[in-house]
Amino acid sequence: MSEIGGRELERQLREHYRTMPIDSSRDLIAGVAHAVDRAPQGRRARFGLQGAAGLAAATAVLLVVGALFVSMGGALSGAPSRSPAGAASACTSPGPVSSSGAPFTASDASGSPCAGQPGITRAEAIAAVERFIGRELVQAEVGEPTVMASGLWLQVTEAGPAGVDAWVDASTGRVTSLLMMPVPATTRMALDSGEAQAAAAAFLTAHSIPFDGLTPAVTIEDHGCCKFYVVTWQRYVNGATVPDTRIVKLDPSNGAVFSFTDTRAPYGPVSSPAIGREEAIELATVASGYADPLLGTVELLADGRPFWPGRMVWSVQFHERAGASSGAAIVYVDAITGEARVVARG
Amino acid sequence: MLDMAIEVGATSDDEIRAVILARLPDGLRLASWILHDPVAAEDAVQEAALLAWDRRSSLRDPTSGEAWFNRILVNVCRGELRRRARRPLVRDIAPTADGSYGVADRDELTRAIRSLAPEEQLLLALRFGRDLTVPAIAAASGTREGTVKSRLHSALEHLRAVIEAGRRLEESAG
User: Fold this and answer.
1) Inter-chain contacts counted by CB atoms under 8 A, chains A and B
2) Which residues fall within 8 angstroms of residue B150, CB to CB, at 6 or more apart?
3) pLDDT on residue B94
4) pLDDT-derived band of residue A65, with 50, 70 and 90 as boundaries?
5) Which residues, 6 or more positions from A240, have their beta carbon under 8 angstroms from its beta carbon?
6) CATH 3.10.450 occupies which residues in chain A?
7) Annotated domain spans of chain B
8) Are B28 and A25 an interchain contact pair (Cβ–Cβ within 8 Å)?
9) Which residues of A touch B2 (CB under 8 A)?
C-alpha cells in the first residue's frame, strides 16, 4: 500500500473540490428571490412561535416554497413586486390561461382579490385546512394576510411534531400548499415511479384538484437520511414553462403524501419563441465569453424573472471545460429579440 | 469570483436582496464542497438566504456582503454536519431508482472526508475548496486563527489515516 504524502493529499483535495459537480444555481436564485419576496418581513412574528421553533417552521415552509420553484424550472420564480402597484398590475395581467384552458379572470387566476382584506375569516382558513386533511387542527394559528403579486394569502400553522403548515388563498379559501409533519425519515423505496405517480394523481383527484393537460414528471429527492418521491405536473405553453404547477411529495415506503403545492398564477399570452434553441445556445455562448464551454441546462422560460421580468427567455447554463478554471455562467437570451445577457457567473 | 448582473435598487432592502441573490451561485458551490450532497447544499443555501434576509439589519455595509453571507452559510452548513454526525450515516452504494440522484460519497476521498468531524470537514472545504487563507477561514468560521491551524493539521492527519486504513482493508479483502 502506498502512503500519501502531505503535498499529494493537498493536491488531491484541491482536485477533489475543483472537479466536484455543482448543481445549477439559476433555479435556486429564482426560488430564493420568490421566497424572500413572499415573506419580506416579520416572518417569525407571524408564525406565533418563539426562537428556533419558529425559525424552523418558517424555514420548513419557505423551503417547500423554494422547492416548488426549483421544481418548476423557475417560470413563476422570481421577484413579484412587493409594492401595491406591483400587486395590482399582476392582477390585471392580460390573457392568462387557466389549467383547464379557459381564460382566468383577475380574481380566479390567483383566486385572490387584487387588494384589500381577505375574503375569508381566520376561522374559515382553519376550517379549509381541516377539511383538506380530514381532521381538526390542534392549536392552530393563522398569520397576518400576506400580500403577494398574485393576491392575498393566509398561513395556517399547527404546532407540534405532527403539525401542518398550510397556505390558504385568502379570497377563495382554497388550500394551495400543505406540509404535513413529520417528514418521512426513510430510504426504503417500496414504490416504483409509476406507482408514486398514480398515488399522487389519486391524491389530487380526491381533493378535486385539476391536472389535465399538465405534463407529469417523477423524481427522487435524496437527502441521505431519507428519500422522497416528487411528482410534478407542469404546464408548458409553446414549449415554455408557465406558472401552472402541482407538486406532490410522497413517502417512498408507503406512498403517503406529506407535501403538496398547487400553483396557478396569471401570465400573459405566451408567444412562440422567435429564437430557436440552437440559435439561443450560439448567442449565449458568445455572451458567456467562454471559448469552448460545456453546455448545461437549457430551458425556455415564459418569464425571465427576476432578471428580465415580462420577457420570454432561454436560460442557458455553461461550465468551463475540465482543465480550465472551474467557472460557470448562466446566460439569458431574449427569445424574441435574441438579446443575450450573463445573469450569473461563478 | 462572482459577477452577478443584478442591478442594485435604491432602497436598502432592495440592495440587501440583491446582495443575497448575488451570493447564491457562489454559496451553492461552497455548500456543496462542505456537505458533499447537492440536495443538502441547496437546502443549506436556501436556509442561509432566508436567515440572511431575516438578519438583514446586521449588514451595515453592502460591500462586505460576501463575508456576511458566507458566515451565515458556514453556520448553516456546520449545523447540518453536526446533525449528520448525530445520526447513522446512510450511504448509497447502488444507484438510486432513477439513476440520477444519490449521495455523492462514492469515491474514496469523499467517503474519507465525510468520516471526519464536522468542524474538520468544514475547514477542509474552506481551505482546499474555497482556497481561503487561515485568517480568512478564521473570519468565515468564527474560529481563532490558531485553532484553525491546529484543526486543519489534525484534519489532514485524520484524513490520511482514514484513507490508508481503507486501502489496507481493501488489500486484505482482495
Assistant:
1) 161
2) none
3) 33
4) very low
5) A75, A270, A273, A300, A301, A302, A312, A335
6) 183-268, 271-345
7) 12-173
8) yes
9) 344-346
Q: Considering only CB atoms, which chain A residues are within 8 Å of B110?
A: 16
Query: Taking every pair of C-alpha atoms in chain B, what is the biggest distance, in angstroms?
Result: 66
pLDDT tens profile A238-294: 888 888 889 998 999 999 998 888 888 777 788 889 999 999 999 999 998 888 788
Q: Which three cell numbers stand for residue A149?
A: 403579486
Cross-strand pairs, A240: A237
Sign for the CA dihedral angle at B51, B52, B53, B55 comes to: positive
Which DSSP symbol is given to B58?
G
Residues near B133 by Cβ (< 8 Å), separated by ≥ 6? none
Contact B74, B122 (CB under 8 A): yes
A249 or A72: which leads in pLDDT? A249
The pLDDT value given to residue B143:
82
The band of A133, judged by pLDDT with boundaries at 50, 70 and 90, is very high
Residue A49: is its pLDDT beyond 70?
A: no
The pLDDT score that the predictor gives to residue A149 is 53
Q: How many Cα atoms are found within 13 Å in the side-chain-facing hemisphere of A340?
A: 18
Other Cβ atoms within 10 Å of A117 Cβ, number = 10
From B74's Cα to the closest Cα of chain A, the distance in A is: 16
Supply the pTM of this predicted model. 0.47
Helices assigned H by DSSP within chain B:
12-35, 38-54, 65-86, 108-114, 118-124, 134-141, 145-173
Residue A68 has pLDDT above 50, yes or no: no
Quickly name the fold that domain A271-345 has: Nuclear Transport Factor 2; Chain: A, (3.10.450)
Give the integer Cα–Cα distance in Å for A200 and A127.
23
Domain A183-268 has CATH 3.30.870: no
CA dihedral B35, B40, B42, B48 (to 10 degrees): -80
Closest residue, chain B, to A252 (C-alpha): B97
Helix, strand, or coil (residue B39): helix
Per the document, the length of chain A is 346
Q: At A37, is the secondary structure helix, strand, or coil?
A: helix
| Cα–Cα distance, A102 to A96 (Å, whole number) | 9
CA distance A293 to chain B (A): 18
What CATH class is the domain B12-173?
mainly alpha
Low-confidence ranges of chain B (pLDDT < 50): 1-11, 88-106
CA–CA distances in Å: residue A265 to residues A48, A246, A248, A327: 28, 12, 18, 35
Instruction: Quote the CA–CA distance of A14 and B109 in Å, as a whole number.
Output: 11
| Chain-chain contact of A29 with B21 (C-beta, under 8 angstroms) | yes
Residue in A249, A259, A258, A343 with CA at minimum distance from that of residue A305? A343
> What is the arithmetic mean of pLDDT over A180-191?
83
- pLDDT at residue number A74: 32
Is the predicted ipTM greater than 0.85, yes or no?
Answer: no
